[in-house]
Design goal:
Strand content: 35-45%
Strand order of the largest sheet: 3-2-1-7-8-4
Number of helices: 1
Low-confidence stretches: none
Largest sheet: 6 strands, mixed
Shape: rod-shaped
């Protein structure tokens, strides 16, 4: 009588892979364990590296333009000269600022798994 054990194993593996391939994306929590290179531990089960991660703007440093309309507080030089009398400065117009949202070691993050599980999108920091 033939031994079908190996064939059975191959069929089981193919079925398991087919189910996994159709798996919808999932939401996971992770913790940054390293920033250079970026590595995130996902639910203490696996470590994801740079090649597996897609970073959203919420978790990166970036520059953006803002509209500023304000005055500084009153200041003076105290020397008694007219140029150093009490005065204010007006800050007005469109200004370029840097938003510091980059990931740091120890940050807890929320991730979305791409369908099929090849990539994970780092959506935001937790808390």
């Amino acid at each position: 009588m033939p031994d079908y054990t190996e064939l059975l194993q191959v069929v089981k593996r193919a079925a398991t892979e087919a189910v996994a391939a159709g798996k919808p994306s999932g939401i996971y929590f992770g913790k940054v364990v390293s920033t250079e290179p970026l590595q995130i531990s996902v639910e203490q089960k696996m470590i994801l590296g740079t090649a597996q991660l897609v970073l959203t703007r919420n978790v990166t440093d970036y520059e953006t333009a803002i509209t500023a309309e304000w005055e500084t507080g009153e200041t003076s030089g105290g020397s008694g000269e007219e140029a150093f009398e009490v005065h204010k400065h007006v800050i007005s117009g469109i200004k370029l600022v840097t938003i510091h949202n980059g990931l740091s070691k120890g940050d807890e993050v929320i991730l979305a798994q791409q369908q099929g599980g090849q990539k994970y999108i780092v959506l935001d920091k937790v808390g």
